[in-house]
Design a protein that fits this description.
Two copies of one chain form a homodimer. By secondary structure, the first copy, chain A, is an alpha/beta fold. In chain A, 42% of the residues lie in helices and 12% in strands. Chain A is built from 15 helices and 16 strands.
Chain lengths: 469, 469
């Protein structure tokens, strides 16, 4: 027996070098049990004898045995020595199924990326953010490192109330604001609250993100689809939807088609909410970016008791920060905060304090202003290049946001997308955003012109022009 | 009419000072509509005449009118001038209901805080954390600011795999790790996955946090309760629970009673999982803190395919960071990552990168070591003070973690808690953690000795001794 163990020990020799002898021995023994090299019930050599075989101090081995007994790997009984614990045989560790590595893995990075939904990540203001973070961390009261209010830090809610009133015409009070970890997190919380209230359906627009629609359905809500015409979402259809308790809208800049909801329809959707007791969920994902005029104020300003406003730093700053906010009607603010508290998580408090400092110091305004200039220039270049290369392609939608829609001749979207893929250009068609029940009547590309870094922009634009009809 | 407007303008005078004249006028007009001072249908003065009344440039007024038309507050029709938009009368903004401010608001801060569940927030290593954050933010690739892998940053998963193997005997591979925003977030994700798999029940221990139990029930799961005896949770009862697909355990340090699960029961719970195909959810909330010996390795090491390990920085560092991690069996890792991706949020990537750097640089080890010394000293002082002041009170449980249980004479818990409240001492009784179906057989205090800052510790200890029998 002793010689077997000496062989075993020799196998382990490399791992037993260094100072962490006991830990190394424990790891080796665990691995031997796990792999079946040491079968259940096997009696181990005495600590004295194994120590001699391995050239270790006896206490090192005795301690390792004792720890492994405490962990349940081994058993020690008076008179019966130390044995490998008996239990039902372990299943061999399953190899990860083929999909393990592919969870949401992006396809091989294309040469040019004009997918929409992400700002230019290279322009993240690292130095200014770090400055705000340092200041926030230095000034933070100790309690900021604790669990805290599920609505988020009061410093951030106060700074946001001021900013949103000024920049977006939002009627905001800090106690009505709930910080969340992205728009989707906020929508999930609101969806859960609406469902718990007994709401059956939340209406959605004809074009939008599957992710949002799916999230509402996961919360147990139906998602009837509002029609769409050349003036935008047909808000008049809301009145005909029985059991619809809310509507999700991108009023300032329809995503992805790019129109602004006209004033009479803005009024119509708020009137519907007032008359029916419903709630408008305003997804103001890129409201700060308007190039032809000042931004149209948020719908929420029209009736803070009927419109829930959702904003995010994901487009204006970076999605990686996972910072977003809701400004809610009073009753909804209470219920959403309770729901968020019951599931117990929120964004990191140092991040929240850093963002409050970033807002207060003016760094956010500066960054938004600089981004607006950069994206506006890119949009102008896009419009000019399309006009020069493909006169039959029309840039539709308002001059706003981080993406534009290129309306293509009927029936050409799929062929254009195939040509783009062939050239290593990542870009999406409008039909990727069409709800399944909406008939296909539009052909177009959704061009995320904010996505590439400055160094990649001209190349991406060239590749795009190369695939247009 | 003009004079009315002049009066109205005079009211606004203060707000119209400064450079943001148009924005100020728009705010004032919105407020006037919202409050009803300007009734729907009211015709507004021409921009020329209002500009004259208010001493503004005509364009300022015309621009403000145009923006408010775009936002839906006003309507402009050829020949009919500018009017307040007609719509159903707004409801007066509801006063927030009385509970609005009380959402999860803690009671008035007591003089002494010995509630358990929080480390000493004053000891958060601000300088070291900031150093790690700066380095992480400086070195981060641009793509780190994007949406990213729902499992979390690979840098952090790699650093955690190394740390958990070394410090907790966890069999961890980066692809099996999913970062989450606190233990509760992780438990919620696992609960959703188990429910979707068709699991009906997740067994819980006799004593634990309501929050966890409630979370599982919200996910649609039943929570049968395992019995408890002087050796700890009666894991043998698992075999008799039909339809039970998982068990939530605090094996290293029962929360809150403070025992370590004995080796035979550790083996028993893993054997049950193997035989039944169930999953053990190991809540290793304070595994790094053991004072009388080296920490007992995680249960997960016994069978990585049947034990899901959940760890957190909330006790070792700070809850405010909202950083926690799961090490999951292969199939569960895939499903949990998919579920997390579908609801789309995670912890901020700069924080994840900072924590990876904090681990790699050794700052985490140093902080844990220093905390271990500090909390061990406090526990020793607690034991000594209790022995001196209240010989009939026994400190139960192992020398570990951030809290101790003081076993009180039968029937004295409530009176002791009342005495504590009277003295401004926040502390909880063990019966606050007892599941409703478990008969009350223990009396005791759960003393979170890590909670106060150093400056408050002696005072808190004195107050505690003053209320013991």
């Amino acid at each position: 027996m002793a010689s077997d163990w000496a062989t075993f020990g020799a196998d382990l020799h490399l791992e037993l070098r260094g100072t962490r002898l006991r830990a190394g021995l424990m790891d080796a023994l665990r691995e031997a049990v796990r792999s079946g090299r040491l079968a259940p019930g096997t009696r181990l050599p005495s600590s004295r004898s194994l120590a001699a075989d391995l050239g270790l101090a006896r206490n090192t081995v005795a301690d390792a045995y004792a720890e492994l007994v405490a962990e349940g790997w081994l058993t020690a009984r008076q008179g019966s020595g130390t044995r490998v614990a008996r239990r039902t045989a372990p299943r061999p560790p399953a190899a990860a199924p083929p999909s393990a590595g592919s969870v949401r893995r992006r396809p091989a990075t294309p040469v040019h990326n004009l997918n929409s939904g992400t700002p230019d990540l290279a322009s993240f203001p690292r130095a200014d953010w770090l400055k705000a973070y340092r200041r926030a961390l230095t000034d933070a009261p100790n309690e900021a490192f604790g669990y805290g209010d599920p609505r988020g830090r009061p410093e951030l809610r106060t700074a946001l109330a001021e900013y949103l009133a000024r920049a977006r015409g939002v009627h905001a009070r800090p106690e009505r604001i709930v910080i969340c970890a992205g728009f989707v997190h906020g929508l999930m919380l609101i969806g859960q609250v609406l469902r718990a209230r007994g709401v059956r359906d939340v209406a959605v627009e004809s074009y939008g993100l599957d992710l949002h629609d799916g999230l509402l359905r996961r919360a147990g809500l139906g998602t009837p689809v509002l029609g769409f015409d050349e003036r935008g979402t047909r808000t008049g259809e809301l009145a005909g939807l029985d059991g619809c308790g809310a509507v999700l809208m991108t009023a300032a800049h329809q995503y992805p088609l790019g129109g602004a909801l006209p004033p009479d329809r803005r009024a119509e959707v708020v009137d519907w909410a007032r008359a029916s007791g419903g709630v408008v969920l305003e997804d103001d994902y890129d409201g700060e970016f308007r190039y032809d005029r000042r931004s149209v104020g948020a719908l929420q300003g029209l009736d803070p008791e009927r419109v829930a406003y959702l904003g995010t730093a994901s487009k204006s700053l970076a999605p990686g920060l996972r910072l977003a906010w809701m400004v809610l009607p009073g009753d909804l603010a209470v219920e959403v905060a309770e729901t968020k508290g019951a599931v117990g998580w929120s964004s990191s408090t140092p991040d929240q304090l850093a963002f409050a400092e970033f807002l207060r110091s003016g760094a956010y305004d500066r960054h938004v202003r600089a981004s607006r200039l950069r994206y506006r220039r890119r949009r102008d270049q896009l419009v000019a290049a399309v006009a020069a290369h493909s006169p039959e392609t029309r840039v539709s939608g308002i001059a706003a946001g981080l993406h534009a829609v290129l309306a293509l001749p009927p029936g050409t979207e799929q062929a254009t997308l195939r040509a783009a893929a062939w050239r290593g250009l990542a870009v999406q068609g409008v039909n990727a955003f069409r709800r399944p029940t909406v008939p296909p009547t539009l052909d177009g590309l959704v061009v995320g012109y904010a996505t590439p870094p400055d160094s990649g922009w001209q190349g991406a634009l060239g590749a795009l022009c190369g695939v247009l009809p």
